[in-house]
Amino acid sequence: MESEYELERKFARFGDGLSVADGAVIEGYASLFGQVDQGGDVVQKGAYAASLKALAAAGRQVKMLWQHDPAQPIGIWDEAHEDETGLWVKGRLLDDVAKGREAASLIEAGAIDGLSIGYRTVKATKTDRGQRLLTELELWEVSLVTFPMLPSARVAAKGETSENDVALRELAAAFEGARRELTRE
Which Gene Ontology molecular function entries are recorded, alphabetically (predicted)? Predict the structure, then answer.
């Protein structure tokens, strides 16, 4: 059984809908419904609804962090909502924050191209294929990250993907999988 307060992270696929405007405004999908990730999880439509409603009722927003580090907020997610495709977010990198300026430069150069969500599982079921269907999640944050879990999980793609890029992503996914296994013990 999941720990009641265990924070999990899910590297999400953005797809082609992500855009960065004026070096600071970011919008796109932070999570797509119905896709199996390398951890065997599938986020179901409606999984974020209760969390987003609770945040709005409390007058709070989803946090924008750098690499899941709670000591490094880099911007503000002004909007977050579910649609037929997934969890859509729109926000601003803060240029008054050094890491926010760095993130904008790294995204523009194509060095950073992933998003990842930090959440707590509220409700999930297992399938006969060993997948975990995530039906209710408490969303804590959406981070800009270097290595998304899936090779196709990108903020913005510039040019072709090199073999080294794919190898580094696969290595990062292996490390993330090992970290998750070690923290379950």
Answer: peptidase activity
